């Protein structure tokens, strides 16, 4: 009996720099030229970054979605051709051509606008975005595609990112994060909810540090990488620590700490009774809670410096779906007012508008508290 043996052979080309080439920008350019001569450097190579969830409004002709593309080749890119593949329907569309106003340079990453049609029904659908050609030639990128989760909705949501900074006044290198968080909050005031958690210092001792333990023991492997979920992961970083604190421990005067969390509720498992049932279209869900004892903070007297941040969790995945913040005004929603239940214990008491004393927790309405008219919501 004749037996045929199939053998797979892998060839690995090792590229070794000549001794006269040092490790620097010029040597890299020389190495690139050598690689081009032997034909192992891609010429037309463009890869997209995965954008994650993309929201599309039902009824719209199309929605322009921002995607980041990187030129990994050694040639400037003037155009790309791409296709769509809907994994659920197993339907392909395209190819489509995108011409750049300015060429995409070697190594450049740029955000482009790609039009995508919404689905025929509400819900999620996986979409494969595949770059097939670069400059009219075959795309040589090893991963020239990206998966998008298209969410067809009847109203476009305002998606915000929760940025949590882990800091402490005793931490001499923490200004790296403080400055970055402040800058992000200034640049994207409507899209970012910034929270700075101080561990074991006098600013915010009351915040449960157990919630944040273990966050800083893992970091992202690649950049950019930001998790908006508190599952023992922290935002990735790629920095060079200049170690400008070589003098050792020292005090810094005039430092202003912003976005500091001074009180928190439900950060482990959510607020009690806040788990929501299914929503109907255009339905508004409400939930209320009370922060007690906050008058121990001197800053609480200046309401212009106080904000309330709310975080919406997905109880199935444990991830954060959205976040919001609002300023604190006078009595009413997100307002500061005396704790009326505690005020009951005082001699003055709470009276309704007919002058009758109220026992127990008052229902919403107008009352007389300590001789002043007060609205309880």
Q: Could you spell the SSE succession in H and E letters?
A: HEEEEEEEEEEHEEEHEEE
* Largest sheet, strands/sense/barrel: 6 strands, mixed
Helix content: under 10%
| Tally of domains | 3
**Total helix count?**
3
Query: How much of the polypeptide forms β-strand, as a percent range?
Result: 25-35%
| Uncertain runs | 1-17, 211-246, 333-347
Rg over CA atoms, rounded to whole Å, is: 29 Å
Mean pLDDT: 70
- Give the distance, in angstroms, between the N- and C-terminal Cα atoms: 91 Å
Q: What shape does the CA trace take?
A: elongated
Number of strands: 16
Class by SSE composition: mainly beta
Keywords: Signal
Briefly characterize the structure:
With 377 residues, the chain is mainly β. It has helices at residues 25-37, 175-187, 340-343; strands spanning 46-48, 52-57, 63-71, 77-86, 91-104, 109-116, 123-134, 137-138, 145-153, 161-167, 192-198, 307-313, 320-327, 350-351, 365-369, 372-376.
Report on the architecture of this protein:
8% of the residues lie in helices and 30% in strands. The protein is mainly beta and 377 residues long. The protein has 3 domains: 46-153, Immunoglobulins (Immunoglobulin-like, Sandwich), CATH 2.60.40; 158-238 and 256-269 and 294-330, no CATH class; 340-376, no CATH class. Strands 2, 4, 5, 7, 8 and 9 form a 6-stranded mixed β-sheet that branches. Strands 1-3-6 form a 3-stranded antiparallel β-sheet, with no helix packed on it. A 3-stranded antiparallel β-sheet has the order 14-15-16, with no helix packed on it.
């Amino acid at each position: 009996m004749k037996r045929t043996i199939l053998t797979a052979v892998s060839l690995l080309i090792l590229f070794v720099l000549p001794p006269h080439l040092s490790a620097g920008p010029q040597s890299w350019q020389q190495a690139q030229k050598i690689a081009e001569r032997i034909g192992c450097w891609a010429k037309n190579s463009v890869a997209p970054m995965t954008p994650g969830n993309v929201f599309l409004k039902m009824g719209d002709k199309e929605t322009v979605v921002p995607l980041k593309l990187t030129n990994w080749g050694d040639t400037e890119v003037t155009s790309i051709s791409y296709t769509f593949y809907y994994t659920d329907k197993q339907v392909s569309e395209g190819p489509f051509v995108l011409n750049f106003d300015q060429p995409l340079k070697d190594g450049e990453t740029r955000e482009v606008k790609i039009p995508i049609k919404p689905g025929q029904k509400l819900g999620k659908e996986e979409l494969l975005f595949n770059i097939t050609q670069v400059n009219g030639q075959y795309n040589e990128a090893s991963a020239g595609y990206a998966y998008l989760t298209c969410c067809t909705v009847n109203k476009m949501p305002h998606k915000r990112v929760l940025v949590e900074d882990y800091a402490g006044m005793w931490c001499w290198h923490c200004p790296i994060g403080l400055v970055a968080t402040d800058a992000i909050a200034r640049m994207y005031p409507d899209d970012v909810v910034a929270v700075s958690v101080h561990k074991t210092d006098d600013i915010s001792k009351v915040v449960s540090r157990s919630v944040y333990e273990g966050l800083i023991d893992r970091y992202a492997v690649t950049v950019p990488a930001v998790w908006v979920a508190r599952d023992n992961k922290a935002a990735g970083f790629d920095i060079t620590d200049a170690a400008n604190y070589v003098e050792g421990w020292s005090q810094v005067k005039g430092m202003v700490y912003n976005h500091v969390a001074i009180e928190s509720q439900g950060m482990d498992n959510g607020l009690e009774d806040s788990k929501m049932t299914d929503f109907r279209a255009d339905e508004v869900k409400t939930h209320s809670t009370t922060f007690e004892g906050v008058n121990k903070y001197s800053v609480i007297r200046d309401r212009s410096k106080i904000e309330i941040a709310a975080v919406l969790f997905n109880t199935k995945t444990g991830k954060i779906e959205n976040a919001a913040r609002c300023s604190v005004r006078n009595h009413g929603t997100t307002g500061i007012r005396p704790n009326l239940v505690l005020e009951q214990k005082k001699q003055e008491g709470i009276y309704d508008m007919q002058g009758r004393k109220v026992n127990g927790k008052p229902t919403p309405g107008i009352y007389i508290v300590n001789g002043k008219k007060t609205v309880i919501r």
